[in-house]
Amino acid sequence: MSDLDEEYIIKAVENKEYTILSSMDDNFKKDKNLFFKILTIDPMVLQYADESLKKDREIVLKAIEGNPMALRYADEIIQDNSDIVLTAVKSDPMALQYASKRIRGYSNKPEDIDNKNDIDILVIAVKSNPIVRRFISRELREEVIKRIRSNVKEQSSEKDIDKDPTISVSDSKTNDSDNKTAEVVDISSMTAEELEAYEERLDNDIKRKMAIQERIRRKLEILADLRVQKEDLLSEKSMQRPSGCMLDKEDQTQ
Fold first, then answer.
1. Is residue 171 part of a domain?
2. Residue 72 within a domain
């Protein structure tokens, strides 16, 4: 679409007309200043950017600032950047699923598995939301849980607490609009079998919610496309209408 301009694209993002973004020219997809503006409106439009922008640290951080899940659309090089992944995970632990395989422990290189900085990221994510254990390799899961339990024991010793403090997280079924009480999960005292069962239960809930989100997004895209088609159709009819048809109903009755 060569007849687009920046203002039209910004308006399209505000109206969630994503089909326009997918068809815009490469010069717009490579426009860093334009994406700085539209990422403020909807961080997930990073998916429509040129590959060069998906590798751009500033652009990706801008998207993550608005929605950590935008890490999904970043280049693999960025998804392997520990600092950027940590930024995303601190805001939303679920963003861990879009970190590189190396960070999540799916690597055959011993030096990758022993990377302390990356393990620290996993510990932060799992402590904030135990559900994200499912995104980590089985080998690293054990190491992460071991470190969390060790940290809890140290904290308990320092505060002279007889019982380990629990790690509280909101259940995946709970949101701000619900009146439900947040589920409290003490992963520090769970056995391996209990952790697996808890993970499986919540895994099914995550898949269900992700499927719902995807269906909603597709419907929004279809709705935006229909809106554009309707506007085009109305424009064509307006161009084809004879001048005599411009009379209103009062003129016609006289």
1. yes
2. yes
Contact 126, 99 (CB under 8 A): no
Tokens of 25: 């020219």
| Residues 94-146 pLDDT 10s | 999 999 999 998 877 655 555 677 889 999 999 998 889 889 988 888 888 88
Secondary structure of residue 2 in the 3-state scheme = coil
Of the chain, the end-to-end C-alpha distance in Å amounts to 46
Question: Taking residues 44-72, what's their average pLDDT?
Answer: 96
185 in Cβ contact with 198 (< 8 Å): yes
Q: Could you tell me which residues come within 8 angstroms of residue 153 by beta carbon, excluding any fewer than 6 positions away?
A: 164
How far is residue 48's CA from residue 35's CA, in Å, rounded to a whole number?
Answer: 10
Whole-angstrom distance, CA of residue 134 vs CA of residue 197: 11
DSSP type of residue 183:
P
**CA 222/CA 106 separation, integer angstroms:** 37
**Strand, helix or coil at 30?**
coil
**Is there a contact between 45 and 67 (Cβ–Cβ < 8 Å)?**
no
Structurally, the chain folds into a number of domains equal to 1
- CA angle, 250 then 252 then 254, to 5°: 70
